[in-house]
Amino acid sequence: MRVERYRASSFTSMVATGRRRNVEVSSGVRPPFILMTTPLLFSWPYWPIFSIVWIWAFWPEFKIVRAARKPATRSDSPDAGSYRVIVYGGGLAALLGFPLAWMPILRVPVGARPAVFGVGLVLIIVGSLLRRHCQRVLGSSFTGDVRADPNQRIMTTGAYALLRHPSYSAGILMNIGIGLALGSWASTALLALAAFAVYSYRIAVEERALIRVIGEPYRDFMSKRRRLIPFIY
């Protein structure tokens, strides 16, 4: 009797499981394992939302990069390769960060992914708005390569009242946002660290050039502001 009951209960369990799977397939509901292996960014309706935000945020950046390509490679440029470091270093981090989001290591929990995705988009938007603000404040001095002019005006308004390099802070925010939108703590850490590294090199090159050309006025500007994070760093 016990054997028959066990067989009956096993058969009933198999039928119930099959029914649940049929309901999931027929209703279009994805099984949990798909959600666990596919980054939210690549599923509907998240990928078109991300694509729209990404194009809006990064299209102006492509123009800046393209305009700086030739000036950065001139023999008399003070850029010291920082243009290439940002373009290739950031590009390599992105190429690694996207595939890394498919790996189970350090993935955002399934239930938290929509909220984390939203936070990521907000950071991309905020970072892009801050970059555009910096471009408006600096005007023609906002370039994709390092340039130093003795007649260059040192801006102390807007975000430059708090930071020496707010546009680079914005770039780091945008990279963190991409990592969060991917739903991977590992991708977020990689993109954040890579952005911090390439911009740190750019800051060192840029400040050295500005101190050499502008001198004491820029030293005074540096002494009153942090690099990337207000009141901290």
List the topology elements.
Elements: H1 2-27, H2 32-37, H3 46-72, H4 82-100, H5 113-138, H6 166-181, H7 185-213, H8 216-223
Describe the structure.
The protein is an all-alpha fold and about 230 residues long. It folds into 2 domains: about 1-30; about 35-225, Four Helix Bundle (Hemerythrin (Met), subunit A). It has 8 helices and no strands. The protein has helices at about 1-25, 30-35, 45-70, 80-100, 115-140, 165-180, 185-215, 215-225. Helix 3 (about 45-70) packs antiparallel against helix 4, helix 3 (about 45-70) runs parallel beside helix 5 (about 115-140) and helix 4 (about 80-100) runs antiparallel to helix 7. The protein starts with a helix and ends in a 10-residue tail after the last helix.
